[in-house]
Amino acid sequence: MILATHAGYEVDDDPARLDLDVITDFLLTTYWSKHRSRETVERAVSRSFGVGLYGPDGEQVGFARVVGDATTFAWLADVFVLPEHRGKGLARVLVNAVLEHPEHAGVERWMLATLDAHGVYAPLGFGPIESLDRFMIRSGPNAVAAIR
């Protein structure tokens, strides 16, 4: 279903519209996903709640996915807008559409990790973890040390 529109762009949660080539090709260039295989990225996308951002021509130009139980916890991951479509407020439109999706109504806690997009997420209510010492992480053998 179309979740939002902005300047000729639309956000849609229809999994049939997702272009795995666009998603994988871009994610394999990012600091957080460049170490993964195409198969790993495709598997992660298929096991998540994915939302696409589409340009005026209908081509996919962005993506975000959610991992969680849609009730108490949700992890926002792999958010991107292709470089040639940035600077139009599209990332914020995309993320807001995900946060406001009926599937996620009432989620108690949203989390994400970013090195460089705090300006996108802060206006949508995200902030630093206050009690970092309460959180723990277990990295598997395929985790990359640079992003652990």
Question: What tags apply to this protein structure?
Answer:
24% strand; 148 residues; globular; six-stranded mixed sheet; Aminopeptidase; alpha+beta
- What class do helices, strands and sheet pairing give? alpha+beta
Instruction: Give the CA-CA distance, first to last residue.
Output: 35 Å
CATH topology: Aminopeptidase
Q: What string, H for helix and E for strand, traces the elements in order?
A: EEHHEEEHEH
Parts with pLDDT < 50 across at least 5 consecutive residues: none
Tell me the CATH architecture.
3-Layer(aba) Sandwich
Strand content: 15-25%
- Rg to the nearest angstrom? 15 Å
Number of individual domains: 1
| Lateral strand order in the biggest sheet | 1-2-3-4-5-6
Keywords: Transferase
GO molecular function: acyltransferase activity, transferring groups other than amino-acyl groups
Pfam families: Acetyltransf_1
Protein name: GNAT family N-acetyltransferase
Helices, strands, pairings?
Layout: E1 2-6, E2 9-12, H1 20-27, H2 38-46, E3 49-54, E4 60-68, E5 73-81, H3 90-99, E6 109-111, H4 118-121
Parallel strand pairs: 5-6
Antiparallel strand pairs: 1-2, 2-3, 3-4, 4-5
Helix pairs in contact: 1-2
Protein name: GNAT family N-acetyltransferase
Keywords: Transferase
Domain N-acetyltransferase: 9-148
